[in-house]
Every structure is written in structure tokens, then in C-alpha cells.
Amino acid sequence: MRNGGPKARIAVIAGDGIGTEVTPQAVKVLKAVRAAARRPMEFVEFDWGADKFLREGVTLPPGAVELLRDEFDAILFGALGDPRVPSNQHAADILLGLRFKLDLYVNARPVELLDDRLTPLRDRTEKDIRLMVFRENTEGLYVGVGGVFKQGTPDEIAVQEDVNSRKGVERIIRYAFEYAGQNGLKRVCMSDKSNAMTFAHGLWQRVFKEVRQQYPDIDSRHLFIDTLAMEIVRDPGQFDVIVTCNLFGDIISDLGAQLAGGLGLAPSGNIHPGKTSLFEPVHGSAPNIAGKGIANPLGSVLTSAMMLDFLGWKPQAELVRAAVRAALRENYVTPDLGGGKTTGEVADWLVDFVEKNNFAGR
Ligand code: NAD
Ligand code: IPM
Ligand code: MN
Questions:
Q1: Ligand nearest to the CA of 86
Q2: Of the residues 38, 51, 108, 274, which has the maximum number of CB atoms within 10 A of its CB?
Q3: 22 CA distance to ligand 2 centroid (A)?
Q4: All domains in the chain, ordered by first residue
């Protein structure tokens, strides 16, 4: 993270597919906010993604991590994934590479219903669907430790190790409790599969037991991940904060996204407090709709609001959220939400809203 100066420096990595469509629209909204705030914010674009990989064989270029770490405050990221790269090698190198190498151990994925009519759950309203998923983001089954043996033979074996360190588990569980305490939230739920994954998640159990004792004012409990998946659909109102491992957090955050209107709306932050952090929508590159101009930009825009919060631009973050809520209320939305607007039309509407409602800049 850069040290000093009022100017925010943002690295923009749009990536592949709809990442290249929604990210520039989010930047457009950020530029309107910047003008409203009369505060400096600089954007530098990086073309890392499938095209560059296929053209030059480069995924995460040498020196990239140091550059981002030392010269930028935050990274606004789109999505990676391209059918022309079936191995997904570039996505693993760039996205997982940045999460690991920048040590972005908190993957914060809020699930927030912004308009009652968007949830597929009957009789649920905004007050029932408002929770935060904290996904461990640097370990677990994602570390790429493993291998194959006798590949291509009938006896082939594939092994993928689940790596859980005491430090890694403790810091994400502690972060969840701290977040709850700082935000006046009373309930923290840790979820694992310790009944089957006795070694890896036995560690989660031991650490959770220890850490929860240090937060007696918070009502903490444990649910196995299968039960959590069921409970979050049956009665989402019972959760404030959920903390879980890397893989389960990935799955539960898509489930949560759908409860709040779908992947097109879901934001996330990959955070290490005090260090250069990366903000991306929960969705992927959506090859099935890429190039059509109909991707929902609101997930990326709400992601930008999370980035503004992280940068300390709180009133500006609120202005962006107010704009998104207003667009939803007016039904000025893309086809995934039942509207007929294009990606660019929705973003232009938000820019207009920001320009007309510049309460944050006053
Ligand atoms: P996806 O999130 O790209 O798409 C899932 C479904 O949601 C599709 O039907 C898609 O059209 C829809 N959708 C997603 N975002 C939308 C938006 N903004 N507006 C409207 N509809 C939207 O998931 P997938 O199809 O499983 O994955 C596609 C590629 O993206 C894969 O290569 C995958 O690995 C990658 N991926 C990347 C990230 C990331 O970079 N953070 C996240 C998830 C998936
Ligand atoms: C996400 C994505 C990634 C993940 C993939 C692309 C590796 O699904 O950010 O949710 O599993 O973390
Ligand atoms: Mn995912």
C-alpha cells in the first residue's frame, strides 16, 4: 500500500468476458464520484487476462505483485475465465496469485437484499436478508498442493490437499468477531465440516472454541456447512456474520448472492487490513452473455463502493449505494433482473444520479 498523499491510486484489472464490460462502467461511476468529491483518484489499467496469456504466454507479469503492493492503494478487478483457456491457468496465476501473494486473507462477501422484490424467497424482505460472509482466502483446498499419479491410465490417482494453518484459521475467525463487535452485530456463525474432515476442520473447531471465549458479548455458534446451506435458505434472518473456509465460502457466497437478487448484484472485497487490497464482483466472466452488452454492472459498482469504504471515502461509498438502490427502485436494470437496459445505460443512469445528488461532496 502506498504511504501518504491524499490521492487514491487504483489499479484496474478488467480481465476477461463480462469483466471487460462491467469494470469500465464501474470506473465511470467512480469518476463521477471523484468529481463530486473533488478529491483525487487515479486509475491505471492493466491488460492481464486470457488475451494476453494466449498472445504472449504471460499470466501475472514479473514484478506485478511488488508494483501493486508498493504503488497502489487498491485493485478494482473484473473477472477471469475464458473458454479458450480450459486449464484456467491464467485465472489461477493472476487471481489466486494476487490473493495469496498480497496475503489478502479476508474475503468479505456481503449478502444484502436491496429491494424486496429481488429475492426468490417467499415473504422475505430487506430486514431478513442482510449478512456478511467471511471466507478464508489464502489457504484450504485452493493452495494448489497435490498431484496426479499414473495419469491417463485406468489406475490414475488425483490428490488435492486441504491446507489449514493455526495462524490462518485464527486470523479469519478473529476478524469475523472483530467485525461483528465494531458493527454492532450480535451473531457470529462458524461453519465447517469437522464431522467428516476431522483433521483439517478439527483445527477450526479448536481455534473457534478458543477465540469465541474472548468475545462473550457476541452470540456465537457453529453449524456444519450442509446445515448452514439449508438454514440460510430456510431463515436467512438468523445470521449476521458467517465465517468459513475458502471452498465453503465460495459456494455459500453464490447461494447468498442468489437470495439477494443474483450474481449480477453481488460485491466482494479481498482484504488485508492496511495493505493493498483487491475488490471484485462475486460473479465470473459469464461467457454465455459476454459481448452482448447486457451484463449487470451493479455487482461491479457495489464492489467499487466497498473499495471506497476501504479507502476511507465513506460518504462517497454511500452515494454509490444510494444510486444503485434508486436504479433498482426505478427498475432501470439489465435483463438478469427483469429489465431491458444495457450495461452502459444502467451505468449512465448511475452517473446521472451521482451528479444530481451530490450530497457526499458537500
Ligand atoms: P459466472 O459467474 O461467470 O456465471 C454464472 C451465471 O450467472 C451465468 O448464467 C451468467 O450469465 C450469470 N451472470 C454472472 N454475472 C452476471 C452479470 N453481471 N450480469 C448478468 N448475469 C450474470 O460463473 P461460471 O459460468 O461458472 O464461470 C465462468 C467463468 O468465470 C469460468 O471460467 C470461471 O472459472 C470464472 N469465474 C471467475 C471468477 C472471478 O474472476 N472472480 C468468479 C467466478 C467464476
Ligand atoms: C470466485 C471464483 C474463484 C474462486 C475461481 C475463479 C477460482 O469462483 O472468486 O468466487 O473460487 O475463488
Ligand atoms: Mn465463486
A1: 1
A2: 108
A3: 17
A4: 8-105+272-356 (3.40.718.10)
CA of 38 to the centre of ligand 3 (A): 35
- Please, which residues bridge with residue 268 across strands? 280
- The CB of 91 under 6 Å from ligand 2? The reply is yes
Q: pTM of this prediction? A: 0.97
Residue 172 has pLDDT above 70, yes or no: yes
Helix (H, G, I), strand (E, B) or coil at 314: helix
Q: How high is the pLDDT of residue 237? A: 98
Among 284, 258, 295, CA closest to 25: 295
| Cross-sheet strand order for the sheet of 219-224 | 41-46, 8-15, 74-79, 277-281, 267-271, 106-112, 130-136, 241-244, 187-192, 219-224
Task: Decide whether any atom of ligand 2 lies within 6 Å of the 250 Cβ.
Answer: yes
CB of 128 sitting under 6 A from ligand 2: no
Among candidate residues 289, 319, 293, the one with its CA nearest the CA of residue 304: 319
pLDDT digit string (tens) for 8-54? Answer: 999 999 999 999 999 999 999 999 999 988 899 999 999 999 999 99
pLDDT in tens, 212-227: 999 999 999 999 999 9
Q: How far is the CA of 16 from the centre of ligand 1 (A)?
A: 10
